Give the backbone structure.
Amino acid sequence: MTAVCKHEGLNQWVDEMATLCKPDQIRWCDGSKEEYDRMTALMVESGAAIPLKKRPESFLFRSDPTDVARIEGRTYLSTLSEEDAGPTNNWIDPTQLKETMKGLYNSCMRGRTMYVIPFSMGPIGSPLAKIGVQLTESPYVVCNMHIMTRVGDRVIEALGDDGEFIPCLHSVGAPLEPGQKDVPWPCAPIKDKYISHFPEENLIWSYGSGYGGNALLGKKCLSLRIASSMARREGWLAEHMLILRLISPEGRKYHIAGAFPSACGKTNLAMIQPTIPGWKAETLGDDICWMKIRSDGRIHAINPETGFFGVAPGTSSVSNPVANEMLKEKTIFTNCALTDDGDVWWEDMDGPPPAHAIDWKGRDWAPGSDEPAAHPNARFTSHVSQCPSEAPDWEDPEGIPIDIFIFGGRRSSVIPLVYESFNWDHGVFMAASASSEATAAILDKVSPIRRDPFAMSPFCGYNMGDYFQHWFEMGDRLGENAPRIFYVNWFRKGEDGRWLWPGFGENSRVLKWMCERIDGKAGAKQTPVGLMPGEGDLDLEGLSIPSEDLRKLLEVDPQLWQGEIPDIEEYFEQFGSHLTDRMRTQLDAFKERLAKA
């Protein structure tokens, strides 16, 4: 039963957008299991969803080949001043952008149903939560939002008759004429795709794409691009981070927030199973982290989402046994291959590849084919409650206090396995100069290596020079309560192309060193880039790793690092007067340390 909405502003907005988009009917989502089942049945009947015989209550979708990932080139930040958006965002004047998009939205839902999705990012009623309302004609989006957020009547009740909400308008951009047959994955051509953000109005408009963060507007659009702008105004942080709890054999709990670009092992780390005897881990979130300084003076974090939208290829019992178990039922799969016995398959899955499958484009596939069976950015959507390592208090409305920030990326050379910042300002510099090799999570790759500060480059909702300053100011407010900052690179390779570090569960050895650094139980040596484990500081008991590999993993070559300086300087230079002097001071100190090394 759908609750009656008493919010005049919300009702008025829905009416206005319905008048523009002209759907055949409007349905308010109540968030019930019956509603979810009704949507999946609708999509099975239409041919959009394929039920999986091997995985109960699970479905496979195949997207249009032009609609497979985030499209950074079609993602816009629309502010009154282009300078406020900054050089890392695509900017269009708000008046111009709205005029263009209104033309596209006109009658865009003809022949379809408009679904009204009230959703809460964060536990309903939490001081850290925000409410959004998404309009869409995509049942696929409705089902994914059911998994990824708190949807329905409870949100309407929390909103009351005058509560604040973030309007999120979405359309796949494929109206149906009378008698016209629908396609399994409706979407618009790339030239007509727009993922637009108006941070000064807390408004999101998305058109033309049905995929992932382009269409699930609670994901990157609200939780990062709009929320980061809100966080700056209101004095908190909205970050692209996992949240992880480590528990020592003595029962001491450590809370870690970690930022990594997409497809760099963030979900694997969030669900880590430590290989060190006695150590345990619990998952609080794998992608989004909202943080506020609470009355105890510490920064507390919540995961505003309720699900995982993870990269499937590479997920196995070796890389991520927790996710492997989680995906056995009640999961939406997108752009994976379909096996003859009714299961999904992707590259680097357990066991040998199937002798035959239907690939993500719906074609016959066999081992040795020219193209992969699953798209490299194929995804799974699964609820947190299915995660075997789920923390029992992951929905604590007060959040959990963060002890450690980790930043990192995928680099095959130069960057060592782990190092710690000398202080908060140095840590902000480390995060601001972070870089990574390109991943499959974006459609339009720019270069093989790109600077991705705080793993937020595609997601920051304002000028990134001002974002750096916001981090410095948060450190000032936290003072001695500020979390310690570390940088990691699990992806260092030898000259022969081998991975030097085994990764996955063995990463717990690096995390243990960080925890012991907090407690003053582990040593470190000073290097030009930061504090690093000295000989014997990393717990390598039971791990067979050649001493030469370990030496290379912890190597800091000043000459190679000096080669990074011009690129860092060029990246920072684009922010002009928005780059705080504190960042320039850190860069100068870094250059000086390298020159003396």
User: Anything to note?
Assistant: The first helix runs from residue 8 to 21. The chain has a mean pLDDT of 96. Residues 238-303+394-596 form a domain with the Phosphoenolpyruvate Carboxykinase; domain 3 fold (CATH 3.90.228.20). The chain has 17 helices and 32 strands.
